[in-house]
Design goal:
27% of the residues lie in helices and 20% in strands. The chain is built from four helices and six strands, in the order E-H-E-E-H-E-E-E-H-H. The strands form two sheets. It has a four-stranded antiparallel β-sheet, with helices on one face. It has a two-stranded antiparallel ribbon with strand order 4-5.
Length: 142
């Protein structure tokens, strides 16, 4: 998985594969709140029944927002999000999820503050980790 590093890539661990919608669509929907996604790659299922994903964003601000989301639950399991090692970039296709935004496109989230993005995800029903909003507020004030 991956190719050249551009400083906008995260690795996501401990993901339970989705059936409806599929894992790629679920992850695209989740991470599109952070900003535009350039690439997404998902590993095969491991011995623990989980997969790993590599997500590459268009902008560094999206990566910063994604890092705040580590510990958030997707499919009832807390995910871990870390900056990808140098040299890793997701080249895989990104699911088309534009219809799920009810008037807002993923690019509308790109230039929002982290606080606004996290608050939007909470109001959309995502099970974010405790403290995500306060981390976003701290990030925005620095």
């Amino acid at each position: 998985m991956g190719n050249l590093d551009d400083g906008t890539t995260v690795i996501v661990d401990n993901i339970v594969p989705s059936v409806d919608p599929d894992t790629s669509t679920s992850l695209t929907n989740f991470f599109s709140y952070c900003g535009n996604i350039k690439g997404l790659e998902i590993s095969d299922i491991d011995d623990n029944g989980t997969v790993q994903a590599i997500v590459t964003f268009e902008k560094r601000t999206a990566l910063n927002t994604a890092l705040i989301l580590t510990g958030t639950k997707i499919n009832d399991r807390k995910i871990n999000i870390e900056i990808a090692p140098e040299g890793v970039v997701a080249l895989g296709p990104v699911a088309d999820i534009h219809s799920e935004y009810e008037g807002e496109e993923p690019s509308d989230f790109e230039d929002r503050s982290q606080t606004s993005v996290i608050a939007g995800m909470m109001s959309a029903g995502f099970d974010l980790k405790e403290g995500a909003l306060s981390k976003a507020i701290d990030f925005d004030s620095n």
